[in-house]
Structure prediction request, 291 residues.
Amino acid sequence: MPAELPPRPSRSAALTWIALACALVVLVVVVVQRRDEPAGDRTVGEVTRVGVADGDPIPGYLRAAAAELTGLAAPAGPGPGDYALVSFAAYLTPAQAATALGATPASAVVARVPLPGRQTEIVRIAVMRVPDDVIAGMAEVAARKDREAADYRTRAAAPAASADPELRRVYATGAAVSAREAAAYRAACACVYAAVVRDAPAALRALAGRPGVRVVDPAPEVTRLDRTVFTPPLPEQREVARPPADSALAEPAGGPGMGDSSEAAPTVSGSSPAAGAAPAAPGSPNPAPTS
Prediction:
């Protein structure tokens, strides 16, 4: 009688083990790939705002900023210090801004050309050396304003504007304002009205007492300037932060030249509309982003 052979494993059991092995391989590959992927930035989309909000009373903002500066705690160890938004009492030239800041390191300045009756663009210029980098940044803005003025003049001469006197006036006003902004920045105008600085609490408190400084608003919560919106009050704003009426479109054709009063919208998060531009007008040029 022949010896009995050992029982063969069933085909279904073999397939089960193969399936489990394949699943294990897939799981290992997925884990390795996820480990190799860079960690995502959880702060994407988050924006920190420093300054006075539209519609808020400016005296209250000044008091709150001063109180926060007084209570700003000293750092636990050595470091670059805290960011702060410095608002000036008047529009300053690059050299005057350097004098007002003294030895305080600056990261950016905020500027606009204070044309009477016009809502001019607010620009933020990154700096390391004041006044040299401010002057260089103004020259770049002037070149962009020259291009904007030329674009407006081209559109004013186009057939669509020729057939619409109101549209032609809008473009002509935009060209005139952009040209005046270009000339002012090219001459290193008295246009700087705020600065972003970083220093120790004691140095920031000393800066608040310097001539020409209106208020120092500390912002210890700021860690990245590219995700921070700074809205300093304009020097001429005393009661409430609010966008003014731009007289460019209110004037009839052939009316007054550049207006009699001025105050611009308090924003540095993006470019203000080019003065006199009609957002709804077809073919209206888009203003370039701030630097």
User: Anything to note?
Assistant: The CA atoms of residues 56 and 240 lie 6 Å apart. The two ends are 97 Å apart (CA to CA). Strands lie at 48-51, 82-92, 106-111, 123-126, 192-199, 213-219, 228-231.
